[in-house]
Structure of Branched-chain-amino-acid aminotransferase:
Amino acid sequence: MSLIEAPTIWFDGALVPWQQARVHVLTHGLHYGTGVLEGTRVFATADGPAVFRLDDHLRRLARSAHMLRLPMPYGAEELAKGTLELLRANGHRSCYLRHFAFLGYGAMGLDMRSSPTTTVIASWEWDSPVGSEALRVMTSSWRRTDPNAVPPAAKATGPYLNSVLARREATDAGFDEALLLAADGAVSECSSENIFAVRGGVLRTPPAGAGALEGITQDTVLTLARDLGVEVQVENLLRSDLYAADEVFVCGTAAGIVPVRSLDNRELPSAPGDLTVRLRELYEAAVTGAEARYRGWLTPVG
């Protein structure tokens, strides 16, 4: 999916032209994956563009940095202000946002203490990287990283190599997306989305203990489902639980809610299923401000 350049990027507290947002080739994060990130969305609403769950994303960014012992030179309030400043400058009605903090140029080697933190906020117009049609998913030969090796609650850059390899394997084999299993064989998540299964009217999704990211869109879906009166369970799933499901879907900030058509060449009974459709409709109403109950999730760009 091509990336459409925007006029400016917020780079360590200042707006700079897109092409001038550069780092040194010996940047620590480039060599050792010492960085944390957030993907956030801006949606068009009747009152103008608004950022969806900005405060939650910035809290998770700070939590991820804390887990990696990565010093953050900017607090949540400064980053929120910088985010809105950037969006006004770039003039987006809707877009994708990337908050990114990483160790910069200062020292080489595994000792991270002498490298300063660089902080970036970028915005661009970008369609979902997995598309909006029902997906054909395959179980990857790559396993999700052990949660005792890399904490799944930290959205860090280094572990994304795992996802890159799984996605490449899936697309090379003619599939749309990859499903990763945990080291013990339990279902973890897809390469960049959390996964849900519906059976007998119950909505189920794997926990962080299976190596799955504690997704903000995942949390959104669970909240919406409960508000619809749906029983939800966050628990370990086996691959066979997905094969036997009435419907399966994935969710993520970039993807939204996307139904799964087949898993390992096993067709699902319906794609999208009834609950997937209901959740997608309510999610769309929430992110666009059409449903008043969820307007507290929106930060107007204004």
